[in-house]
Amino acid sequence: MHLLHLLATSGLALGATVTQLTGQVAFDIAVGPKPPFKPIPPSTPRTKECVVKSGGGGDDTPHIMEAVKACNGGGKVVFTRGVKYTVGTAMDLSKLEHVDLVINGQITFTNDVAYWQKHGFKHNFQDAMTFFQLGGVDVNVYGGGTLDGNGGVWKGKSPRPILFGTIGLKGGRISDLTLRNSPQWFHLVKDSQDVVYSDLRISGHNGNTDGWDTYNSRNIVIQNSNIDNGDDCVSFKPGSIDILVQGLVCSGSHGISVGSLGQYRGKTDIVENIMVYNVSMANASNGARIKTWSGGHSAGGGLEGGGGSGRVANVTYENMRVSKVDSAIEITQCYMEKDMAKCKANPSKVTISNILMQGFSGTTSGKKNTVGSLTCASAAGCKNIVLKDINVRAPGGSKAFSCNNIHPSGVSCA
């Protein structure tokens, strides 16, 4: 039984301070300069405020859930500035309606590995697990505060929890927060739509720390944020449709990545209508990246799979500045397969089409002799791949790409 239900049925009163509000304006975030694929529904004004008490070092989850219970349906749940809150219990916040979580203080998740592995929320995708799940209708999270995942204690442990789980949210804004030390990805955006992420500060290198992973979600905006992490800055997983990414500063990552797709035989993976605009990428393995598995079985880097089907379509990367990246642009239909003969014999069942990469500038790390890699399993697998205004150089001055079964105009192939 979830804690929220226990509170609702037990009559437990922890003394959340409730204040009635008048003349409130609904919280909003301007999206720009590129517009979202569809308008983001407006929030409604909130009419009451509930201040979360702190247990002074104990588990504050009951205090948080009591405040949420009191202010759900038109209120603001406020975490006081300067106060440190501790969360030691998995929180199901999946049925919120018209509520703001105003995080002015700091929320730290406990280091109880055994508890979280047993009670964290499982999401049936790549062993994804979250500390909490936030969902419902018209939910905003903001305030300038911090979420700390205590990621250092998770080294060598698996599965590891994702710091922020947006699960089944229909309309929302997540803004002005610091996220640090996530044990796994910083954000999982699953089964959600019409959500804006803006003005976030992300830091942590505890393994597979993607900034965002979008999965089975539509009309998502990720903008105006700084990310210093150890894996993909943003990764578009299967079912990512109508996603806008703009104004990001990424460091230490694996790039802005589509995929990987086609890993699981019998599954159809679709990613389409993606706009990535005005992104800076430094000290990273890649800038822009599209990766699909071959039609056969491949393995590498602790991963294995291949044989799934699907498509990547209508993807634009525009105005990307790179510095000390190993590969400015990488497109591959042979992810985790180094033997091109095997890849050609079992070409990817995930097609890549209508891709535009334009307005790239900067320098690579020099780790590779080329500035990018374009690898298609067959000429038929990649269609209408356009590269324009690519002004990226290796330290020695080369602007050449490594090319297989694809030779787009506008770049030279080594």
UniProtKB/TrEMBL annotation:
Keyword Oxidoreductase in annotation: no
PANTHER family, sorted: EXOPOLYGALACTURONASE X-1-RELATED, PTHR31736
Pfam families recorded: Glyco_hydro_28
UniProt-listed Gene3D superfamilies: Single-stranded right-handed beta-helix, Pectin lyase-like (2.160.20.10)
A Gene Ontology BP annotation from the UniProt entry: pectin catabolic process
Source species: Trichodelitschia bisporula
Protein's name according to its UniProt entry: galacturonan 1,4-alpha-galacturonidase
Lineage of the species this protein comes from: Eukaryota, Fungi, Dikarya, Ascomycota, Pezizomycotina
Reactions catalysed according to its record: [(1->4)-alpha-D-galacturonosyl](n) + H2O = alpha-D-galacturonate + [(1->4)-alpha-D-galacturonosyl](n-1)
